[in-house]
């Protein structure tokens, strides 16, 4: 299996200065490579510059600028150039697919937050046999940085990344050949129906409450954002108060994100421990949270009819606050580690199908919470009905694989 481990770093004041310099210099390399690609396309008969061309220039760049570029790992700089190359590959893929292109943009120093070392030991080494009872990671140009290792690392470390989140620093280890840790079988099969009123409802009729972390901190976050908005958006020098206000907003968002991840990990772990097979709907959250298209008013030039965008924005906020996609990803990872099985099924009409007679009609769901079949009169909670239908479809998959 492939797994990633994320640990908090505890750098000294000098090491933190060096880490910030490393991010800044890699950011300059990224922006310079992007500028070269833009310039070649615009001024040299639409000539495209590839990763191989820019990687071949690294030796010369390091010799010309030994203070900023020569002191960092060659392979980490190659990884930064590959990052830009992937951004352009994604741009061209979106263009061909007719999607919003999203041309790669220049990175500000405050928004370039990660440097990757493609091979453990090449510019960055994970110390698997720590000295003085403390785990450390050795980073070229920085030194041996203390690591708060809260869990053992299993498998073989392939890549090491140094990441900044606000004022915190982390090391991320990508490992392969991670062994599974099977849990004892329980003989239980369950299905879950994701929602916004309840985080999910399982096929046994139990509801998992939605913590609504964003909603609970909405007032405090709005106040911090309003205070930040009082400062001029474009100034030559950002003041100390402006930086403090920006850190306040970033800190609140980071807290919400940590609370949500903690909830998702604990909830997914509980499901994996209690059930051998877990079914859920395949959810396209990107499509579900898409803003409604504007409706031009045929009777007024340049006018538009109401399209329910305000109500849809509230629903989108609730869906994104619940974090269904992140949760289902965490659930799949934990299930794989525990030798459990997760079965995603087609979500079409799961909330409109009667689990008793099989009748499908949108009139079956009378309200958000109530399901009443117009054919046989079966009445139940709508989310419970959705979970039962997911369980039925997951069972068909199990039978087909048997």
Outline the structure in words:
The structure is a single chain. The protein has 402 residues and is of the alpha+beta class. It has two domains: 3-176, no CATH class; 189-208 and 256-401, Nucleotidyltransferase, domain 5. It is built from eleven helices and 16 strands. It has a seven-stranded antiparallel sheet with strand order 2-6-7-1-5-4-3. It is globular, with a radius of gyration of 26 Å. The two termini are 24 Å apart. 23% of the residues are buried.
How many alpha or pi helices? 11
Describe the main β-sheet briefly.
Answer: 7 strands, antiparallel
* Net shape: globular
Distance between the termini: 24 Å
SS elements, strand count: 16
What is the rounded Rg? 26 Å
Helix-strand pattern = EHHHHEEEEEEEEEHHHEHEEHHEEEH
Q: Could you say how many structural domains there are in total?
A: 2
User: Which percent bin holds the helix content?
Assistant: 40-55%
Quaternary state, please?
single chain
Low confidence ranges:
none
Helix/strand/pairing category: alpha+beta
What does the average pLDDT come to? 91
Question: Per DSSP, what share of the residues sits in E-state strands of 2 or more residues?
Answer: 15-25%
Q: If strands are numbered along the chain, what order do they take across the biggest sheet?
A: 2-6-7-1-5-4-3
């Amino acid at each position: 299996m492939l797994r990633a481990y994320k640990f908090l770093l505890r750098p000294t004041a000098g090491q933190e200065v060096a880490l910030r310099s490393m991010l800044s210099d890699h950011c300059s390399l990224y922006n310079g490579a992007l500028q070269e690609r833009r310039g070649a396309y615009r001024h040299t008969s639409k000539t495209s510059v590839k990763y191989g061309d820019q990687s071949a220039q690294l030796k010369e760049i390091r010799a010309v600028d030994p203070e900023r570029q020569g002191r960092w790992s060659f392979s980490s700089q190659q990884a930064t150039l590959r990052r830009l190359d992937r951004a352009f590959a994604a741009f061209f893929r979106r263009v061909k697919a007719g999607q919003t292109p999203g041309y790669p943009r220049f990175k500000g120093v405050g928004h370039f937050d990660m440097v990757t070392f493609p091979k453990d030991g090449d510019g960055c080494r994970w110390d698997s046999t720590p000295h003085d009872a403390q785990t450390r990671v050795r980073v070229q140009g920085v030194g041996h940085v203390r690591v708060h290792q809260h869990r053992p690392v299993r498998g073989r470390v392939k890549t090491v990344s140094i990441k900044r989140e606000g004022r915190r620093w982390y090391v991320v280890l990508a490992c392969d050949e991670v062994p599974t840790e099977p849990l004892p079988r329980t003989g239980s099969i369950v299905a879950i129906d994701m929602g916004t009123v309840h985080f999910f409802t399982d096929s046994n009729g139990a509801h998992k409450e939605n913590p609504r972390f964003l909603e609970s901190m909405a007032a405090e976050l709005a106040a911090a954002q309003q205070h930040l908005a009082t400062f001029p958006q474009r100034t030559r020098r950002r003041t100390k108060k402006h930086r403090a206000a920006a850190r306040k907003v970033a800190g609140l968002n980071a807290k919400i994100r940590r609370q949500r991840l903690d909830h998702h990990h604990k909830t997914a772990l509980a499901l994996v421990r209690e059930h051998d097979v877990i079914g859920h709907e395949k959810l396209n959250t990107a499509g579900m949270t898409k803003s409604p298209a504007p409706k031009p008013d045929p009777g007024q030039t340049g006018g538009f009819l109401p399209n329910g965008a305000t109500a849809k924005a509230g629903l989108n906020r609730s869906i994104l606050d619940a974090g269904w996609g992140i949760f289902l990803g965490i659930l799949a990872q934990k299930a794989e580690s525990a030798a459990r099985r997760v079965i995603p099924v087609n979500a079409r009409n799961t909330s409109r199908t009667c689990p008793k007679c099989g009748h499908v009609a949108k009139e079956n769901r009378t309200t958000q919470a109530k399901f009443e079949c117009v054919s046989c009169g079966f009445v139940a909670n709508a989310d419970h009905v959705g979970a039962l239908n997911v369980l039925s479809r997951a069972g068909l998959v199990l039978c087909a694989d048997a």
